[in-house]
C-alpha cells in the first residue's frame, strides 16, 4: 500500500529534510548541513555573500563567513558536477564515478581536449595545489569562454577525476591530484553506473524529503541511459526510497517506482525518504532570506508545486524587464515563502532595492517576517542599518518601514 500525504504534510517533511524546521538541523554546524543537503550549489554571483555561504546562513544563523568557508574546505568536501557545480561531501566521491567515466569516454565537453593534457597533469602532480594562473593562465585573450589549452586540460582532468577542486581562492579553483585529495579507501571503491545512480538517488531523496522523479532527475542531472538506471533503481527499491502519493501533485507519467495505490486510491506520484515518514515534523520554523540557488528553491517547477511560489532568477534578464530584481531572494517564514527581497549593500546599510510581499492571510505578520529576515541578514554581514526602497504592493511600504524601525538593531 502506498503512503498518502497531503500537500501540507509533504511541505513540512521537505522543510525538515532541508533543515528549516526543528532544532536538529543546527547540530553539527556547516559540515553536517552539507551532508544533510548532499550538494550545495556554487555560483559566481555575490550580493550579500556567495550563494554557498547563504545556504549555511539560512539554516544555521550568523555563522562567520570565514568559518563557513573553512568548514566547507577543511578536507571533508570536494567540488564537482551534481545539480550544477556543487560542493559535495567527500564520502560521496565514489558515487560520481559514472559521470567521470562518461566524460572520459567522450573526451570532450565544451572544448576539444588539447594535446597538453598529460603535461598539465604532470605539473599538478609535481606542484600539489595549483590554480590555472599557476599553470599558465586561463584565457587566450578573447571572451570569457575563450579558454587557454591549459584551462581546457585541467578542467577535463577535473571532469574525469584525475584532479580535484579542493577549494576556491578569489573564485579561482584550486586543483590537487586526486590521490592526495581523496582518501585511499574512497579512491579504491569501484562502483558500477547502476550502483552510483541508485545511491545518488538515495542521497537526493534524503535531501529533498519528498520528491517526484523530475525532482530527482533535476538534483543529480541524469539523462538517457542514466535516467533509465534511475527508473530501475526506483522501481526495484535499490534507491531505498518509499513510493508515496501527494494529493494535488502531478501524476507519474513514466518510469520508476511502484504502480500501486494509496489507501484513497491514488497512484504513487512521488518518493520519500523512509526516515522522513517516521513521526510528524515538529519544531520552530526558520525566518530567513534564501539564495535563489538554495536547494529548497533551486528547481522552479518544484518550488511552485510545493509552495505555490513562482520564482526565477532575473540576474540575466535585461534590467528594464525585471519584475523583482537582479538577485531577488525569497523570504521564508512560518514554513511559507512570503515575499522577495532584492538586496545590496551601501556601506554599513543593507539596502532592499525592491521588497515584494506575497498576497495571502496575515499580511501584517508577513511584513514583520520580512523585516526580521532583513535585520537578521544585515547583522550577519555587518550592517547596522536597513533601508527599503521600493515596496510591492505600495500600501505595505509604510508598515514595512515601521517594522524595520522598531526592530532591535
UniProtKB/TrEMBL annotation:
Q: Where is this region: Disordered?
A: 251-284
Q: Where does the record place Gly residues bias? A: 254-263
The superkingdom of the source organism is Bacteria
* Residues in coiled coil: none
Q: What is this protein identified as?
A: Winged helix-turn-helix domain-containing protein
Q: Which organism is it from?
A: Thermocatellispora tengchongensis
